[in-house]
């Protein structure tokens, strides 16, 4: 069974000022996409770089998540440090994910260029940063998720089987 980490980075949601809708949007989207068994490892944390880094490390190194998806902390505000935390804990970066998400978001809002989403690899796991708005989460995941199952395959992770009527992952044809 695949373990997928979901991290909501928000001072206010972590303090209980408001409900975390973004993390729940990721979980709902993954439930739409995946037909294989998976379990969530879910946390809501403040915008503190050391907390973000330690949470990502724990989800990958200790909890065995093959995929960690963050939401929030990717804008230009001073406390938006999720990309810096991601870069600090990853062995290699995967800039194409951020590039595609920004291109997709530009179809809806001109401020998408302010977003700093990125992705990277830690050990045999993919860490992906998403924006903080639930609507944007689905738009971005619809764009990049077709590449995620194959990326996880290449890192010897669990096979993520998808509902092909909802999302069509790319995997090369076997010869």
From TrEMBL:
Its EC number is 2.7.7.75. Keywords: ATP-binding, Molybdenum cofactor biosynthesis, Nucleotide-binding, Transferase. GO terms for biological process: Mo-molybdopterin cofactor biosynthetic process. GO terms for molecular function: ATP binding; molybdopterin adenylyltransferase activity. Pathway: Cofactor biosynthesis; molybdopterin biosynthesis. Belongs to the MoaB/Mog family. This is Molybdopterin adenylyltransferase.
